[in-house]
Amino acid sequence: MQSNAERAELWVGAAILLIAGGFLFWSTAGNAHRGIGGENYELRAAFPNVDGIEVGTDVRVAGVKVGRVSAVELNPATYLAEARLRIPGDIKLPTDSAALIQTDGLLGGSYIELQPGGAADNLAPGDEIEDVQGAVSLLSLMMKFVDAQSSEDGK
To answer: How confident is residue 33, by pLDDT bands cut at 50, 70 and 90?
Structure first.
């Protein structure tokens, strides 16, 4: 025969498992709604520099996360870094859309910002976004500024 304490522990354990299962269901249902699971398609973008971009990096439209980078590899023919972007099927991007590598503040991580264009036709799965802007190195910008200041001082 079980004591009241054992019975209470059993009910508390069952409640914890039920709550954990609810959180698991909620988190996976939320990912499918945001396009991270469910129906997606892939677009390609070839960048001259993908510093800070790797598999799993956010893809955003108007600052809202809509997908992730699914692959990054070097094209040996063009020496450009090709990124594959997983986008939800319900987001249709015009053919003249742009892909830009942005950073979250000075010390933040990088992400790919998609800027929809105004063309009548949309990109199809597997198409390439041709209007791209690669990553800007903060260190190289600072070095150019320092060089410019030192050359002005030397005049």
So the answer is: very low
